[in-house]
Write a structure and sequence with these properties.
This protein is of the alpha/beta class. It has 4 domains: 53 residues, no CATH class; 188 residues, no CATH class; 164 residues, Glycogen Phosphorylase B (Rossmann fold, 3-Layer(aba) Sandwich); 91 residues, no CATH class. Helix 11 links the parallel strand 10 and strand 11. The longest helix is centred in the first third of the chain and has 27 residues. The radius of gyration is 25 Å and the shape is globular. The termini are far apart. It is found in: Golgi apparatus membrane. It is a single-pass type II membrane protein. GO terms for molecular function: alpha-1,6-mannosylglycoprotein 6-beta-N-acetylglucosaminyltransferase activity. Belongs to the glycosyltransferase 18 family.
Length: 565
Amino acid sequence: DPAYPVCAEKVEFLQAQWQSDPCYAFYGMDGTTCSVLTYLSQTEDFCPPRDGRNHSSLPWHQKPQAHTKKAISNNSSPAIKFIRSRVEKMSERWIQAGLRMKESSNNTVSTQMRVYVLLYPGALSGSVGQRFEAMVERGGPLGELVQWADLSACLTILGHNLIFSAAPGRGSCPIQRPLNFDLIYTDYHGLAHLQGAMGLAFKHYQCRFRILDSFGTEPAFNFASYAHSHGYKTLWGSWDLQPLQYMTMFPHTPDNSFLGFVSEGTVRKGSELEPVSYKKDRIAMVYGKQDYMWQGKYEYVKVISEELETHATVYQPPGHTLHLPSFIRNHGLLTQEHFQQLLRKTKLFVGLGFPYEGPAPIEAIGMGCVFIQPRFDPPHSSANNDFYKGKPTTRQISSQHPYAEEFIGKPYVWTVDVTNKSDIREAVKAILRSESFTPQEFTCVGMLKRVLGYITHQNFCSKSVPTWPPKSALRVHLAPLGQSCVSVCRRSSLVCEPALFHHLNTPAALGLSCASVLPELNHLFPSYSPWGRQCGLQQEPLLFSCAGSDPSYRRLCPCRSHLTG
């Protein structure tokens, strides 16, 4: 085409050099002529437009399927090695779960429903990534890596087209041009990087982002102008996303989408969940890979060691002396495989109070361990705890792992006062025998169903009112003064559903006599104030929030039933 004189030259160059810069893979290039031409016609302007290939003009879920599944990453990175190893080790379980879903449900992914997905863990890129990689090798947090591994396996089993990249747009190609991805899974670090690289185009693609956010982001922290003016501004948040675009490790708040991960502790046979039988020794394993986590816990662990042989996997830096009690048998930092071998023989998994809300206790419970953890009194929150300070949440953390405490509980989870020796001793002696237990939501099938539901129904690019879940699911509850919708719905064995708030945002829905109606920006609205009989309506849909309470308001709550697990 005379209008594109350098097209052939550019094609030849990229066929040979497409791996020279990670940003080419970010745009879907895999070395094939098709992918090169697609890039040169859509992302840059060196080749003629290709008929039927204008992604930006096509409706949601009807993108062309010319892309192959491919993962491009730095394979020597410890974090990528961990992710790859986990996916490979669990691949047979994922495949079997996918086959079972296909057999038991008509909700399989059709060709039209396949989406083109970018997975971009920003925490693995740039200077942040270097610090994270160093921590991984010293026993640092692996929870995020577990989630990225399981998400990539889940999306692949569901049949979507996938690119995993730890460094998109880092070099010469222009990230400001249209992206060919239906969905972009990233984290807070990745979100900030993409905003800087995309410029004004960022707003256009904002509805396609899904943010892996371990601890959750409540609506009051997410809506920037409100956060700034009402004291909710933190280092995180203020992105003006739909709160359901944030995807959490545990179901912290219904305002966000619970993504989760998969516990390796059980297998499935047929259609029933069956525990694996593990021969247990009188062993306790302490959950704490860093020396500092043990401070102030000597008496707590000592009581446990009087009943059970007590082991640990604390990382010891070269030339550094560990200050562990003499009765602890420390194995040092173990590979995931060796750690799990030890867990299979372990009777009791011992939480020290930190790290908060990680995946390890769920894995341990799935391998037949009982989890014991400290109770926090008063609860930890951003008001009194350095770790949660600055996190975009008002949650009150009652123990090291609130999910395990509230959703699993005894006999698999014991939450104790670690300053009370008799409380600890009584709990340890009561833990005589147990079976492995994995909540349904942390199995491969559970995660597949959840992610399938999100991809099928969550469309934040549409301007229309949400239709999922349907209005027929709505159960309206007027909360007592000072209670959140999360707690009110849970008390009735229901769950708060933020997508249904718009049905309640009218004076009629309150069902009360309103002396005045106040439409304003307030994350506690819609609600009713008995003083002056004021009815408050929500002016900004991004502020609809299940979280949050105030002694002056009775909140109007959209609850719904849910399938257990």
